[in-house]
Specification:
Layout: E1 15-17, H1 24-31, E2 37-38, H2 44-50, E3 56-59, H3 67-72, E4 78-81, H4 91-96, E5 100-103, H5 109-124, H6 127-135, E6 153-157, H7 161-172, E7 176-180, H8 182-185, E8 197-198, H9 201-207, E9 210-213, H10 227-231, E10 237-241, H11 250-259, E11 262-267, E12 287-289, H12 298-318, H13 332-355, E13 362-368, H14 370-374, H15 379-388, H16 400-406, E14 410-413, E15 425-431, E16 438-446, E17 449-455, E18 458-462, E19 467-474, H17 479-489, E20 494-499, E21 501-502, E22 509-516, H18 522-529, E23 534-541
Helix pairs in contact: 1-12, 5-7, 13-15, 15-16
The chain binds nicotinamide-adenine-dinucleotide.
Residues 84-85, 105, 108-109, 112, 157-163, 180-183, 214-217, 220-221, 242-244, 268-269, 292, 294-295 line the site of nicotinamide-adenine-dinucleotide.
Length: 542
């Protein structure tokens, strides 16, 4: 979504809330003029029918936004997940359809971190088993000898938002906290928390008394605590997982709990939720299982409801996608600043694709200047979007990279850095497969008005708007007059004309760029191309 995509007025935006949200979400929407519809507990079939006409759908974890739902959705622009994991949304299909998927990653950080701390404490003192015993009518301590946390070593795997909450709280419990996070270690940065040493995974695995997982479930983290790693842990270790199921080899964990190598495990998440009654970790005194409770606090539910309402409203009426999991992140203030360049980027992409005889296969983008550099993560995409819209329908900022891949179009960072004394300049080289055909277009923005300032070796001052007729002709007297009279007899006004002056001016051939009030029909174009001095004509629509 960009400023060039049609934005909605709150009164016309249709928002469907599919799962129970804190009432504050609806209040927030109403304050901004939206009237969302709440429809809970729909089956997939019902949702397939219901989704038609809605611009936004909001879910927690119960409702699944499946391929069928997304395929039925005719107006859907955004799916909002009030929470972190988007496992219940088919993000691949959403991306293909250009639908933004966004989550609320920060609202439940503290709550989930606190649950992990609660699990660490409960595990150390057998709170689960002790409670079951007393509730079951038995009063006795046998087998419930605990361990102190003070002085024990806790290993936090994944020192992101939640991992940091856990690390800091556990320092307060006088534990010695170490952490492993390759993305922090890779930067060479020091630990974000004073006193928490960053170590490699092997050191953490082999030296800790407690190990708490706080990483996302990715291909690279699936089965992170494999049988081999579980076996190499310090005997008597206790493991906590309030992140995602699938991170631990559950079979191996059960066997190592049986052997006593692992003293206990507290798991809020499992590979399959809910687990079957025959699951090897169910029904044990040395295991605490909670039903994916991480985000279940009043505060977290309030936070994520407020966050998702704000994000969806911002997206529908301002085009700003906060926390989109399938679109580039750009802040509202940056987007506002770079908006004219985003539109220019689309025009340059479109212009280039229309200049080419062969399909464009490579776009090399060079951004020079302070303003365009701020949009470096976003502007190249605008060029891709502009170019792809000449090839396929339905392209937007979400699905453009995927469509580019499908059509063999590569977007690269260019190295032809020439700003030609303009404060900010977007320069793009578009090439065909093999590079036999290639064109370079540069543009800038003056105030709020964009200009193409160079096309190949011609310096111009061309407004990228409407119908532009490009002629390549012999540089001889009377050519422009001839073109003008054909257009005049067809009732078409030339409102601006640029005669390109190349750096190495070719005295025999010249190019004219004529901005027309309306596109000429085929007959008029044919008449122009039949003028004796005309080598070729090309009509570009922007
Ligand atoms: P985050 O993105 O802030 O932090 C994740 C951290 O993991 C990052 O710092 C990243 O660098 C690190 N990481 C990635 N791969 C790693 C690897 N191979 N080894 C070590 N570190 C690695 O995420 P967060 O908000 O802290 O959430 C962490 C996890 O908690 C997520 O999986 C999230 O889905 C889960 N979560 C669970 C609940 C629940 O109800 N139990 C609630 C909220 C979040």
């Amino acid at each position: 979504m960009t400023p060039s995509t049609q934005l909605l007025h709150p009164a016309e935006a249709r928002i469907l809330i599919c799962d129970e949200l804190a009432p504050t979400a609806i209040e927030s929407f109403r304050e901004r003029g939206f009237e969302p519809e709440v429809c809970l507990g729909l089956s997939e079939d019902q949702l397939v029918e219901k989704i038609i006409g809605f611009h936004a759908a909001i879910v927690r974890s119960a409702t699944k936004i499946t391929r069928r739902v997304l395929e039925a959705a005719d107006e859907l622009r955004v799916v909002g997940r009030a929470g972190v994991g988007v496992d219940n949304v088919d993000c691949e299909i959403a991306t293909q359809k250009g639908i933004v998927v966004m989550n609320t990653p920060t609202g439940n950080t503290t709550t989930t971190g606190e649950l992990a701390v609660a699990l660490i404490c409960s595990l150390a003192r057998h709170i689960g088993a002790a409670d079951r015993r007393v509730q079951g009518g038995t009063w006795g301590k046998k087998g419930l000898m605990g361990t102190e946390l003070t002085g024990k070593r806790l290993g936090v795997i994944g020192l992101g938002r939640i991992g940091r909450v856990v690390a800091e709280r556990c320092q307060g419990l006088k534990m010695e906290v170490i952490a492993h996070d390759p993305y922090l270690q890779g930067t060479g940065a020091s630990s974000p928390i004073e006193g928490v040493k960053l170590v490699d995974l092997d050191e953490l695995i082999t030296t800790c008394d407690f190990i708490s997982l706080h990483v996302p479930l990715l291909d690279s983290t699936r089965n992170l605590l494999s049988r081999e790693r579980l076996e190499s842990m310090r005997p008597g270790v206790r493991i906590i997982n309030a992140a995602r199921g699938g991170l631990i080899d559950e079979e191996a964990l059960a066997e190592l709990l049986d052997s006593g190598h692992i003293a206990g495990a507290a798991l809020d998440v499992l590979a399959q939720e809910p687990p079957g009654s025959d699951h090897p970790l169910v029904g044990r005194d040395n295991v605490i299982l909670t039903p994916h409770l991480g985000a279940s606090s009043h505060e977290a539910q309030f936070n994520v409801a407020v966050d998702i309402a704000r994000q969806i409203a911002d997206f529908l009426i301002e085009g700003v996608a906060h926390n989109a999991v399938n679109a580039p992140a750009v802040s509202a203030s940056t987007l506002q600043k770079i908006a004219p360049y985003v539109m220019l980027g689309e025009k340059i992409g479109s212009f280039l694709a229309q200049c080419m005889d062969e399909p464009v296969r490579k776009l090399e983008v060079t951004l020079s200047g302070r303003v365009v550099s701020e949009g470096a993560s976003y502007l190249p995409l605008s060029i891709l979007v502009g170019a792809l819209r000449q090839i396929v329908g339905g392209v937007n900022y979400v699905n453009a990279p995927l469509i580019a891949k499908e059509h063999g179009v590569r977007l690269l960072e260019g190295s032809e850095d020439e700003s030609y004394a303009f404060q900010d300049l977007i320069k793009v080289r578009g090439s065909s497969r093999g590079g036999e055909e290639s064109h370079v277009v540069s543009g800038t923005v003056f105030g709020s008005s964009s200009r193409l300032v160079r096309v190949n070796d011609l310096h111009l001052d061309l407004e990228p708007r409407g119908s532009i007729l490009i002629t390549t002709h012999n540089d001889q007297p009377g050519v422009i007059g001839g073109i003008g009279s054909i257009l005049g007899s067809a009732g078409i006004n030339i409102h601006r004309m640029e005669l390109g002056a190349g750096e190495q001016r070719n005295t025999e051939r010249a190019q004219a760029f004529l901005s027309l009030d309306q596109p000429p029909d085929d007959e008029t174009l044919k008449a122009i191309s039949e003028l004796t001095a005309i080598e070729r004509t090309r009509l570009i629509e922007l």
